[in-house]
Amino acid sequence: MGALLGAAMGAAGSIAGAVSRNNQISKRTEAIDKRLRENQNWYDRRYNEDATQRADAQRLLTMTEDAIRRRNRAAEGRKAVMGGTDESVAAEKEANNMAYANAVSQIAAVGERRKDVIEQQYRNKKESYEDMRDNLESQRASGLDMLGGAVGGAVSGMKAFLDASKKKEKKKEEKKEEDAS
To answer: Which of these, 24, 60, 105, 117, is most buried using a 10 Å CB contact count?
Structure first.
């Protein structure tokens, strides 16, 4: 009877352990899924930022505009004082506009490189989180296999115990019949 009770307790313990492990794996999987969503949100936010609207770019553009205004005023002043032509002022303004356009182009180029870095970081994190999730699912499957083996072993043990008990009962009955005859 003790063996039967032990086998039943072993099976119950295996089931309880598997349920507990499965719950832990589910919680860890949910945490990984949350990280994946946060990573996706980070990527969407950072990747789609307008490079020209970032604080550092705005500072550069403001400084460039201020420098252009100063140079344009200086060109106007030189024209008034030294008798320059409208063409020389226009040429100075054109050169300043080109400088501003170059600054915007540089910001855009840096923004594209930044996007490449953001995309690589996103992909690396995503792959890492997906690997973690795959590992957890593998652990879950392994745990279910072990549970199946433990329960199967417990059932086999109970069956063997019951078969042995039946054989003992049968031998007792046969002995009673022999003694009675």
So the answer is: 60
* pTM of the entire predicted model: 0.60
Instruction: State which amino acid sits at residue 155.
Output: V
- Both tokens of 143, joined, read 């745990």
Residue type, 164: A
How many Å apart are CA 54 and CA 23, to the nearest integer? 44
Ranges of each domain in the chain? 2-175
Q: Maximum CA pair distance of the chain?
A: 147
Average pLDDT value for the chain: 84
Which among 49, 50, 43 is positioned nearest to 123, based on CA atoms? 43
Cα dihedral sign for 155, 157, 163, 168? negative
Neighbours of 148 (CB within 10 A): 12
